[in-house]
Fold:
Amino acid sequence: MSTGSAAPRVAPARGTDIHDLVARVRAGLRPDVDQTEALLGAPLDVLLPAASALRDEGLALAGRPGVITYSRKVFVPLTTLCRDRCHYCVFVDTPGQLALLRKPAYMSPEQVLTVVRQGQALGCKEALLTLGDRPEERWPEARAWLDEHGFASTIDYVAHIARLITAETGMLVHANPGVMHPDELAALRPVSPSMGMMLETTSRRLYEEPGQVHFGSPDKDPALRLRVIDDAGAAGIPFTTGILVGIGETVRDRAESLVALRDIDERHGHVQEVIVQNFRAKPRTAMQGAPDADMTEYLAAVAVARLVFGPDMRIQVPPNLSDPRELGLLVAAGIDDWGGVSPLTADHVNPERPWPQIDDLSAHTAAHGYMLRERLTAHPEYVTAAARWIDPALHAPLTALADAEGLAADVSPAGAHAAPARRSAAPGASDPGVRRLAESAAADPLALDDADWERLLRASGAELDDLAAAADDARRYTVGEPVTLVQNRNLTSSGFRRAGRTAPGEFDLDDATAIAADAADLGATEICIQGSLDAAEDPASYLDLVRAVKRGAPGIHIHAYRPLDVRDLADRGGLGLEGALAAMRDAGVDTVPGTGVKVLSERVRALVAPGDLEIDRWVEGITAAHRAGFRSTSVLFYGHVETAAERIAHLRRLRAIQGDTGGFAEFVPIPLPGGDVPLVAERAPLDEHRAMVAVSRLLLSGSIPHVQIPWTRVGRASAAVLLRAGGDDLGGTLYDGRVLPDTGIEHGQELPVDAAERIARSLMRPFRLRTTDYRVAPTPLTRGSR
Structure:
């Protein structure tokens, strides 16, 4: 944010070296395009310290030294139709693709509120509305939808949705609808305290030349986009904009883009933040084979953006588009904002790049000497000067969420018309129907009582189709479209024999090392180890086994030991529960399986698995693991002696544990082998699974983000069907490997990467390899598809 008038300019010195230029910028020079281009070519060891010092100076002047900000948001993809054809975009769909995906042209108000209310419950204060540019001007289907629902344009619908969100939830909207005319900016100002549109680049070559990234995209005309940003300034709208690095632009283009944005801001003072975003190639795009933005060039662009705009501008980078190990370099380059980060929804524009956990982002920020603090969608300087910058209609909801500094207060949004909790119909009353129950569940899982959930579990026929559709919408608008898979191998620790292998399924420490090395060579990023050791084995072998695996594959993620196994180590090893978990961490365990329980019911345990841990001890063990810093899976084995009520109680208890610890990364509903006892006698087995997956997605939505489909139990064909009932993950490849393939509990069952890709492709959904903790998997150096 500038003061609205240009700062005094220092006459440029021609012929001076880069150190002198940087010093002059630090002293107040506003570099011109030539000087900015020179800065972009300067060594990082010159740029980064200057940019970092300038950032620190600005934060001190703003009264928040050492603070880097972010906004806790919900990402709402209002429509994925667009009239543009950008060569790097996976956000947009055609009407034909929407039909195949069973996806509406526009999210309905009910669908929007369903997602936003879940974000509200998680403390989100921003709803980011992102959509394609003016789809009605290209697609008759978009025009027909708007006409049918009584809206003159997409922007008109955006205004309606923004007004509804704030009225119903108290959250503030950041509107990002692309190119807007002055009258549209004026229409959105009373409902959206900030707006945004990336400039991306001033390069006319990328827009005018056939084959370039913006060719055929009328809204990517650089002159048009600059005019919109200028119009927003004239209208007094806090505005977010920025550049995209690595899409084919030249260094000169970057320099011109940064200076052009600074010139507009110096006229109006309305640019609240400048995003410097790095290009990441996406599959299924014209640029899928293009290299990602070079990290050195990206860091230079970030640092030079700070030097061009000076100390009082907020410079933002998206944390999910960089490796966590690179975040410290971005801090060193002068950033002071991470942008919007969602605890609920995916980055629908970059679906292959999950958001970091906010706690992790805070830890990374702190590790580099800065405190992470939450802001609102409008930055503090604009919030504290709301009389000038924010429409009066938004002053009350803004004040309700802001603290005295203009940052986010430690409160949760509360709309004037919060969704009322509903109860099931009284005996003899009319049944509200599965569709209405499912819609209520999607909007607020805690609004349904147990009888409601049991009704959903027993749905069949058309009602089951409605239930599955509601669950799939909940999946689509929260975790997004990707189908994920981790490359892994199982190692069943109950087969460990320190003295050496004497029978099939057994192995020793040297074998474990060889198995791990072989798995890594095949592309695996995870080894899953579980199973209680034979009573004759030293309990220290749990730890020795982990160390042996790390010797064979030092970088591999070890997902090891159920609560039952941990208890064995704790008791026989004399370590106690906390000591056992600490020893596992020291040995190299990264995450833990939440298995070793069927249903959280002592009645069921006694009948089906009396050898499992008592339920309270399992809960104690998994909770202790979470509190020790381990994330875990969670499961429910169904289709045996359990009742519908016991399934619902199990899911509710998992949700309660998650609310306490936040440690569950995923939930896996697993048919118990040999059970096959349906809740509804006449219902087909596949429909039993569909109902279980759909109810799991809805009841756990906003709590446990991922629902994994156990392809080993249901088969590949059924797994594809269940991915349309709310599932988003296929678990692991379960490679047998070439070294002792019989040492995994599910050996003989593999899901090669190319087979998983075919499943995702059959659903018209993107496919992504993940790590155990749902981060982006590193690019394999060896074959992994087998």
User: Anything to note?
Assistant: Residues 3-15, 416-430, 781-786 have pLDDT under 50 and may be disordered. The CA atoms of residues 386 and 470 lie 39 Å apart.
